[in-house]
Description:
Blueprint: H1 2-5, E1 38-41, E2 47-49, H2 53-60, E3 64-72, E4 102-110, E5 115-119, H3 126-137, H4 141-150, E6 189-192, E7 198-200, H5 213-221, E8 225-228, E9 241-243, E10 248-250, H6 255-260, H7 276-285, H8 317-326, H9 330-338, H10 342-347, H11 357-369, H12 397-403, H13 418-432, E11 447-454, E12 460-467, E13 469-472, H14 482-497, E14 511-513, H15 514-522, E15 525-532, E16 537-547, E17 553-558, E18 561-564, E19 568-571, E20 575-577, E21 581-583, H16 606-609, H17 619-627, H18 632-641, H19 647-656, H20 679-687, H21 692-701, H22 706-715, H23 717-722, H24 731-743, E22 752-762, E23 770-777, E24 780-785, E25 788-791, E26 800-807
Parallel strand pairs: 13-17, 14-20
Antiparallel strand pairs: 1-2, 1-3, 3-4, 4-5, 6-7, 6-8, 8-9, 9-10, 11-12, 11-16, 15-16, 17-26, 18-19, 21-22, 22-23, 22-26, 23-24, 24-25
Enzyme class: hydrolase
Function: Recognizes and hydrolyzes the peptide bond at the C-terminal Gly of ubiquitin. Involved in the processing of poly-ubiquitin precursors as well as that of ubiquitinated proteins.
EC number: 3.4.19.12
Amino acid sequence: MExxxxxxxxxxxxxxxxRIHKEECCISFDTPRSEGGLYVxxxxxxxxxxxxxxxxxxxxxxxxxxxxxxxxxxxxEDRPLKKPTLLAIGVEGGFDxxxxxxxxxxxxVILPDYISLPFPSVELPEKVRLAADGIIxxxxxxxxxxxxxxxxxxKKISEYALxxxxxxxxxxxxxxxxxxxxCDKTENLWMNLTDGTILCGRKNWDGTGGNNHAIEHYEQTxxxxxxxxxxxxxxxxxxxxxxxxxxxxxxxxxxxxxxSHFGIDFSSLQKTEMTTAERELDQNVNYDWNRIQENxxxxxxxxxxxxxxxxxxxxxxxxxxxxxxxxxxxxxISRYYENRSLREAFDTSPADPTVDLNTQLTKLGHxxxxxxxxxxxxxxxxxxxxxxxxxxxxxxxxxKTVIAAKHPEFSSMRQQDALEFLLHLFDQVERANxxxxxxxxxxxxxxxxxxxLQCPSGKVAYNRRSDYILSLNIxxxxxxxxxxxxxxxxxxxxxxLEGKEISxxxxxxxxxPLEACLSSFSAPEEVQDFYSxxxxxxxxxxxxxxxTTFPDYLVLHMRKFxxxxxxxxxxxxxxxxxxxxxxxxxxxxxxLQPGEELLxxxxxxxxxxxxxxxxxxSEDIVGQLASMGxxxxxxxxxxxxxxxxxxxxxMTWLLSHMEDPDIDDPISSGSAKAPPVDEGxxxxxxxxxxxxxxxxxxxxxxxxxxxxxxxxxxxxxEASSSSMDTDxxxxxxxxxxxxxxxxAAVPDGSGRYKLMGMVSHIGTSTHCGHYVAxxxxxxRWVIFNDSKVAASxxxxxxxxxxxxxxxx
Length: 808
């Protein structure tokens, strides 16, 4: 005990705002239920598994830990499931009672000799007892951040909070023993912040819940705000305040004052009720995803290295499917598993490893690939039978938190587009490896697209950009089963006239070869309102595209979501015939050819004063979008950002960028007085492979912002092409040199690929439904469906949303 007292300076009592990592190790997926339990540093509140706690002691010198060990209780196999009868947490009949039951033990452990002292114990110093109690009672970081994310958007401050008038009616609310003033309900109670009346909440669709007395009280009195009793603790931000006129959960910055008006001391209250966000989270996480997809019950479940599932955190299947494919690619395996140990990752991480992306990717890589967490379940019931034959999987809480930090969508609990997440992942990983580009695993996915523009003068321009995804249109007119489709449509129409519907097993879907989709990428297309420096006028140019480099891994995105009548997003019900191998060597672009002449540059005085150097939004596209009710400026930006490719492309861009913080910023123009260009920013763009004059122009047009400047370059092909040297003696050399500079940082393979993975989507929109991954491992297809990993009986090669090919 004296040894413990000598270390009291290394013990902290947690505050309500501290992040407590008591559910999971920060460098592995060990939990209190793992062998050896979890050690929580009583100074930093970071959690460590038994194999990693010594690393933390050696690094920080923090010797005192709260050791948490959970052992699963044995239960009969035929135990009936209990249905929650109370809207409460941690009480008989409340939520979470369907989960397996665990016996939890606590000890205070002192390193380096692992001296263990039982907890609770009155013999322990008071500071240690208070600190341990604080850790045990605190909401764990994973759960707290999950709930914060499920709230989706930060609760807005109620417009009624600051001016709320409270009645001096002498009401004093006790700290417990609440009951609805109009019925006998004692759960789901709300206190009106104007008069202190305690009333029950709304009645649920199935008859449970309250009797609607709280909302009826509002309708009679118009007193606007109420707080849910049982959600009030010392952390007032977690209290559930509802505004009836705003019909939403809100923030009340005056809540402490409003509560004290009725004699409530919030610092002494304990949480006993679920907030609205917690209730939604509970319903979502427990949703049975297997109901919305085909399941072969006889599929062989797989275990071992490389066969580890990922727990669905609630609408996180988009992330799980992408990460399973990424950690089947050698570049990610090498960077975050084979060539990077957990010890190296921990030693080079910041003080808090949970906020470092490279550390969490290493943790995820070892979790997925080591096989440590992919073992057949060993839990037996009283009869000696295995209770569950599916692995538990690993929950990627910390990875999701750091990869989604500050991103308004991925940090929420809403379903997301797997493609958008993949691009966000590439962007974040590239940033995390900016000082060591040779280690960046995303380089193996990167390639250079070259676009050739030819105006009626016969002169050409070449524009190059790097990308990670080859996005393909689906030419339905190239379907190989047109006769069957025509017969199906006729039969459907005939049955419609009779008031009948066609059965599901009679539906015929178009079958389009992947080769047709690849051909559509390279097919010539018209570019309206192209400013030709040869003609000094706007005209229509012909654009073709190809690849100047072939990546190690080629990702094909099938554009299955289009705009139907009324401009409503619709998912194409189509099959894509995808072979196991493809050869795209014919898609290689070779740059300026003998006999071709580049478009001349604009006159020097036009570079800063003439908007012809910039792409002008097509009035036809802008007009159609504006007629649908969209903001005119937003429509112009959408047209420019998609290079006037068409209304559909502009609409797609607009729908996905409505919440951009700069969506209302004026469009940068050459006629505007440009700010001085920062030389550091310009050199950064030059290091990306862009010519110096183009980098300078882009920074001027984007106000000096590097990200916007990069986007501007990609969105203004003629600006890029006109930046080339057009002297007759070195035009071709300039073009090829620019290509070499940009292509130097990416691999260039043979152009022949074999299919190695797919991400499939089930649902009517990328922002709803479910994502599943299929990957070729050890010569066979494997399905990764969240935590379930099994041999694939019938991989849906004709139905995927994203295809991943490996160069050979």
